[in-house]
Amino acid sequence: MKRNRQITFLAVCWLATLPFSSVIASQEAAYKNNEEGLIKLRARDYEGAIESLKKAHRYEPASEAIKKNLGVAYNNYGFDLMSKGDSDAAIEKYQYSLSYDPENAYTLYNLGQAYYRKQDMARAKDYLNKAHQRDPSLPGAAALLEKITAEEATERAFDTFETAHFVIAASGGVAAGDFSLIKIYLEEAYGRIGKLLNHYPRRRTAVVLYSEEDYQQLLGGRPHWTMAIFDGKVRIPVNKLKYNKDDVIKIIYHEYTHVVIHDSAGDAPVPLWLNEGTASWMEDFVAPKNRDFMRSYIEKYGFVPFASIPNDFTNINDPEIATLMYIESYLLVDYIIAREGDKGLQKILKSISAGNDVSLALLSVFKEGPEEFQKKWEQFIINSYNIKKLKYQ
Q1: Which residue has the higher pLDDT, 231 or 195?
Q2: What domains appear along the chain, each with residue ranges and CATH number?
Q3: Quick one: pLDDT at residue 14?
Q4: What are the backbone dihedrals phi and psi of residue 334, each rounded to the nearest 5 degrees, phi first?
Q5: Handedness of CA 307, 309, 312, 317 (dihedral sign)
Q6: What percent of the chain has pLDDT over 90?
Q7: Measuring CA to CA, which residue among 205, 266, 261 is closest to residue 236?
Q8: Smallest Cα–Cα separation from 53: which of 68, 62, 43?
Q9: Which of 25, 118, 189, 317 has its CA 20 to 30 A from that of 324?
């Protein structure tokens, strides 16, 4: 190690005594490597971009522009790793990013998100506070800080355990026997859902087990579907085991499906109906849906055409409409699997993760446009659920 430091020192001294013509050549080399790095960065070749930008930095170590570009390259590399579920590797890249650009609010925010995913609330708050201080208008930072503060009040005294595929934080109000059962059901969901979707997340998933009191405190009086947007954690109200074990196992299967979809799709936007519909369909591993209830619900409240299903259920205040959206989402996925099987669903999700919109993804599987898809889906519902005629809202 001592020898390396001496070599570095001699190299720096030698560069400092270069003639003017060599300084110009050095600047040209820095410019060339910087431009190459930016081209690779736009192509999402993060390792290549970092390699080129590091060369540029060696030629011009004082250049603030090159440092900022290196910060962006490491940040984007971290974001890509985070979208694939690798929080630890993402954190490492974010830290490298800050070593070149310590004031970058976006990187500070991303680090806060990464630590939140790992259930490290103290570090998450620290980085989010720094991000908010650097840029108070940064989207999401204040909201996530507020969310963490609320969760901290509930989860401060939680114990944390690790299994092969999960990091589990448990409320003190969760009985040891219940905790053991949850671990079994989580690993069961990992195997069954992974097989159906042909995807197994490589990194452990954060799971938080709440007593009923803690879960209600977390909801804060809001309807349960307002937590429908997956934020990296699976939340389970364990006390429901006392009343209906199947309900708790359904929650596990439902929420873990969101984990698998998010991990497989990366940062590609999966439509909420597909996300929620697949999660609801996985509940059938535990107990099949009440088909009479779904039929009567559609007959009573009407039907929303496929193209009109919203991509955000959290703003729905009417529980009847929210329930209808979940039913229709389930029926869409039920139709996809009935026609094309598990492979069809996998192909749609893979197409979306590759950057295609849902229309193209559906077209790749069904070889038909939206109108034909809608017509055949409606006929499937009429035939499968014995509905005489669909009425629209």
Answers
A1: 195
A2: 19-155 (1.25.40.10), 157-263 (3.40.30.160), 267-393 (no CATH)
A3: 33
A4: -60, -40
A5: positive
A6: 35
A7: 205
A8: 68
A9: 189
Question: What residue has token string 């597909």?
Answer: 274
The Cα–Cα gap between 46 and 333 comes to 36
* Model pLDDT for residues 149-171, shown as the tens digit of each residue: 766 655 555 667 788 888 888 77
Q: Are strands 233-237 and 205-210 parallel, antiparallel or unpaired?
A: parallel
- pTM of the predicted protein model: 0.65
What pLDDT was estimated at residue 242?
A: 63
89-115 in b/e form (b: 16+ CB < 10 A) is bbbbbbebbbebbeebbbbbbbbbbbb
Work out the average pLDDT over 302-308.
84
CA-based torsion, 145, 150, 152, 155: positive or negative: negative
| Residues in the chain, overall count | 393
Q: Bigger pLDDT: 17 or 151?
A: 151
Q: Cα torsion for 282, 375, 391, 271, to the nearest 10°?
A: 40
Contacts by residues 342-349 (CB-CB < 8 Å, ≥ 24 positions apart): 342/196, 342/197, 342/198, 345/196, 345/197, 345/278, 346/197, 346/198, 348/274, 349/197, 349/261, 349/264, 349/265, 349/270, 349/274
